[in-house]
Predict the 3D structure of the following.
Amino acid sequence: MNIFDLTEKHIAVTGASSGFGHHFAGVLSAAGAKVSLGARRKEKVLNRVAELNASGFEAIGMQLDIRDPSSIDDFLESAEATYGPVDVIINNAGVESGAKTFLTIEEEDWDYVLDTNLKGAWMVSKKYSERLIKSGHPQGNIINISSITDTRTIKGQFPYAVSKGALTRMTEIMALEAARYKIRVNALAPGYILTEVSRLLFESENAPEFRKGIPMRRFGEFSDLDGALLLLASDASSYMTGSVIVIDGGHICSSL
């Protein structure tokens, strides 16, 4: 028996047009899940859906702005209308503010990052959970995508690090409060993963020195997240809630 099998599970992913969400959609589909993908960039998310459908997987996509409550409602309704109740929802949508300190950031940028990374994840989780509870047969699974910046950070990651620290704490509190409804809440906390955004840093002249701070002496790849993702999304983690799984090559326990 493959306890990581996702056959017949319906999984919704926010921020699925690129980066982690784009990759997660493929991993989950390959494991048997039906996926509903949402992102602000509608054309990109529909392109990802077309790729998955061409490979024989079941996927739908729609425009989603997690800062807009009505957009979240429309996303969840469309997902349920297509594949039935959502078994797992992955709060992956997130933004960065660039190299900003608490002194150099403007209020508009602060609100943009916190409203997306924290408030948006809470609103999606709240609306998802309310739908499950209203159904009379609640049983759900929420996976938040946090970051190792929830624990350790460097200058210039404010307010991104603030939002991820709060998201990790929110994961723990939500797990406590949602358990009575059989809704599990866990999080993934990736370290420095090679993405389109991080490529400039990882391929710069400072990269070798930066890499030395990682005990495994390499940056992460998308595929390094697959095992933990499948664990949390599947029944293999049925007795896990309030957990934050760190995937960082040992970065957060490196020498100061």
About this structure: Residues 22 and 88 are 16 Å apart (CA to CA). The domain at 10-246 is CATH 3.40.50.720 (Rossmann fold). Helices lie at 19-30, 42-54, 69-83, 107-135, 160-178, 199-202, 207-211, 226-233.
